[in-house]
Amino acid sequence: MFLLAAAPGCDRSPSPSVTVVDPPAAETGGHTVLAGIQRLDQFYGMGWSPQGELIGISGASLVGAPLEFRNLAGDKIRDTGIKGATGARMAPDGKNAWVYHRYEGAADLYNLETGRIIRTGPQTREFPGAWIDNKSYLAVLTEPQGRLVRFGADGEMTPVEHENVESGIVKAALKAGRLYVLSGERELTVTDTDGGGARVWTRSGVSDFALSPDGRQIALVSGTGPDQNALVLADAVRGGREKTAARGRLLQQLSWSPDGSRIAFSVFSPDQGMTGLYVMNADSGRMIPVSYKPNLKSVIDWSPSGTSFMVSEVLSGDITDNMFTTIYQLK
């Protein structure tokens, strides 16, 4: 069943249409996770404000469109003054955003409270970095190739010392004095930034990772065989203490809820009957599907309260593209 609702705009600009979709599954016995699904057409969500507003782009294309705030009904609230954004990552407290421009190879630091925009100087790569804390972001430079830097919320850049990675940095994170670097050779190296850069632990065969908000646990995607991967939870501080949570041909888009109690991820494994978006309890390992579509290339972005997350997509068309955002509401 699909319930279609027209969303009245707060201004007269076109508002995305809102669709409420029945969930594909719900558990019984007090363990219901998925409460509902809402789809916003002609809107590409990139993040959440601290108040639970959506930050994204409306229309048919990401190219040149302004980044704006909308409520869950799709009504426009205000513009950010940023154009040409292709993605954003919110600071843990939601007060600052790292806004990247794929076609320019540049990024902005945007303060949601003051509206201040700072364009970062050197070119940075789009995906591999992460917020260190509420005031600083870890980024990967394109020149010099593969070097890590810390950007403060004021735009000040500080080099981050790390081992040379000849195969290139696929992803990096810095939390609680530990630097996590994933290389193009699928080697995850963890070093102590407070102890002269000494290695703490390493793990081979890793294609992706995500740190829990408190930095104590790490979710890894580890290759287990030809076209086979496993989602593994491990000790982020010292490594080891691994626990396999799921298996699939492809496992991507690992995303922890803000309180660290849940992990959402995308999996594609039709031969094993596990394909789609899943939400897992980090302690018990209990999980349910929230969508049968894997969305392997779409970032899973949690709301500040941890009661919802969104997945945004762009489907290319012959004349125009189709952008939409799906919001999964949990309880």
Structural class: mainly beta
> Helical content, roughly?
under 10%
CATH class bucket of the largest domain = Mainly Beta
How many angstroms does the end-to-end distance come to?
21 Å
The best one-word shape is globular
Largest sheet: 6 strands, antiparallel
Using only C-alpha atoms, the radius of gyration works out to 20 Å
SSE order, one letter for each helix or strand: EEEEEEEEEEEEEEEEEEEEEEEEEEEEEE
Let me know the average pLDDT: 85
What features would you describe in this structure?
- The chain has 331 residues and is mainly β.
- It has 3 domains: 1-78 and 300-331, no CATH class; 86-160; 164-297, YVTN repeat-like/Quinoprotein amine dehydrogenase (Methylamine Dehydrogenase, Chain H).
- The chain has strands at residues 2-5, 18-21, 34-41, 43-48, 54-58, 66-70, 76-83, 87-90, 96-101, 106-111, 117-119, 130-131, 136-141, 147-152, 157-159, 169-175, 178-183, 187-192, 198-204, 206-211, 217-225, 228-235, 243-248, 250-256, 262-268, 276-281, 287-291, 300-302, 308-315, 322-330.
- The protein has a 6-stranded antiparallel sheet, with no helix packed on it. It has a 4-stranded antiparallel sheet with strand order 4-5-6-7, with no helix packed on it. The protein has a 4-stranded antiparallel sheet with strand order 8-9-10-11, with no helix packed on it.
- Mean pLDDT is 85; it is low at 1-13, 19-23 and 25-30.
